[in-house]
Amino acid sequence: MIQRTLTEIEGMVKGSGLDQAFKHEKINGVTTDSRQVEKGNLFFPLIGETFNGHKFVDKAIENGAAAVIWDEKESNPPETIPVIFVTDTLKALQDLAEAYLQQVKPKVVGITGSNGKTTTKDMVSSVLETTYKVHKTKGNFNNHIGLPLTVLSMAEDTEIAVLEMGMSGKGEIELLSKIAKPDAAIITNIGEAHLLDLGSREGIAEAKLEIVNGLKQDGLLIYHGDEPLLQERVPSLSISSVTFGETSKNDYFPTSIHQQVNGTSFNINDTEFFIPVLGKHNVSNALAAYAAARFFEVKEEDIIEGFKAIKITGMRLELIESKNGVSIINDAYNASPTSMLAAIRLLEDLTGFKQKYVVLGDMLELGENEVEFHRQVGAAIKKAEISHLFTYGKLGAEIANGAKQNLPEECIYHFEDKQALITKLKSMVNKNDVVLVKASRGMRLEEVVNELIM
């Protein structure tokens, strides 16, 4: 984590007003949450629409904060610890992260996309860790606050930082890219997430391509070459790029893919790789990681071992065995039409199970066509492959409506009450059955998973 004198911090955040008596004192790490302050931390009180962190400075001091960054427009700065004044505490946090990156000088991989960002981050980190000391985004710390905090928790001897970049609107990826200044930037795909904010897939593509705005001059863009919206736009950019995807027109593509119960194997030319991750669509994420590893000159034998060692962040196609022998695929972290269809295809491909159950909930933030998107997902479910469909939520009802095209109504169960869904599902599943659970994060379908495991 960052460790600097307060004089150094004052310069890095473009601040002022530090009492000279404290200029040689050091801080150890930073935080924006007064509840999580550790002794020696520098506290950043951020200001949002419904909160003002300056109100919690006393709590931060009580918990051991060594100094505080203070918005010069706020009154009554603390008198018991050192204070550095800035015009905007959030901008100061971002400036500090940018300056720290420039001082530590790790190579940087920036990752964005509509789906698969976190899985790709985990894959990239795993293959690079065979050769370098790597620091990566933890959890969902991927926005204008989370990315700076991720950077500032980085060890001084980090060789490569792998940073996930999320967004909700235009301009956000550009901001993150200009803070991080990546050596390699990855765009996993262009899906339907954020249609509510950006209006069209074209708008999403433009927003994701903002990642090149901070790309170093000799940097590389790694992108999904089967996506027409990227095919149209990238060639006009004055940057180096390589592509990955399913088809042979890409620089990196699989010559074969085999789905297994414990993961997925695939070939690139004559070399076989195995990832302990379910879903043929995750081979695409692995190809992006492979491209990044090649860019950083990781040996192929190390890439093979790195893929085998992948540990994916939870609730992303996570296979869990319940006590009564039911297999559960927990993919409850998030959902879009693209990722939901991919998860359904995965379930169809799996063999060795008696009955296959699908539990699907609302996909959020899809804009004016949300009803049609949900119906299309339902219509894609095949009776020959899926035994029963359970849906939850207002939009989940539209998945059920779409499924009636192919599934008998007696195989479809819709619920507005989550506990009622759980009760019915538990009464039906048996040993050697498999259940896929997927929805947007706001639907909290991990509660279904937790009940099934017990």
3D architecture notes:
- The chain is an alpha/beta fold and 454 residues long.
- It has 3 domains: 3-89, MurE/MurF, N-terminal domain (Udp-n-acetylmuramoylalanyl-d-glutamate--2,6- Diaminopimelate Ligase, Chain: A, domain 1, 3-Layer(aba) Sandwich); 105-308, 3-Layer(aba) Sandwich (UDP-N-acetylmuramoyl-L-alanine:D-glutamate ligase), CATH 3.40.1190; 318-453, Mur ligase, C-terminal domain (Protein-Tyrosine Phosphatase, Chain A), CATH 3.90.190.20.
- Helix content is 33%, strand content 20%.
- The chain contains 16 helices and 21 strands.
- It has helices at 6-12, 57-62, 89-104, 117-128, 146-152, 172-180, 195-198, 201-208, 228-233, 282-295, 300-308, 337-349, 370-379, 396-403, 418-428, 446-453; strands at residues 3-5, 26-28, 30-31, 42-43, 67-71, 83-86, 107-112, 134-136, 160-164, 184-187, 220-224, 240-244, 256-260, 263-268, 271-275, 318-321, 327-331, 356-361, 388-392, 412-415, 434-438.
- It has a 6-stranded parallel sheet, with helices on both faces. Strands 16-17-21-18-19-20 form a 6-stranded mixed sheet, sandwiched between helices.
- Strand 13 and strand 14 form a beta hairpin.
- Helix 4 crosses helix 10, helix 4 (117-128) packs across helix 11 (300-308) and helix 13 packs across helix 14.
- The longest helix is centred in the N-terminal third of the chain and has 16 residues, at 89-104.
- It is globular.
- The model has no long low-confidence stretch (mean pLDDT 94).
Features:
454 residues, alpha/beta, Udp-n-acetylmuramoylalanyl-d-glutamate--2,6- Diaminopimelate Ligase, Chain: A, domain 1, UDP-N-acetylmuramoyl-L-alanine:D-glutamate ligase, Protein-Tyrosine Phosphatase, Chain A, 6-stranded parallel sheet, 6-stranded mixed sheet, 33% helix
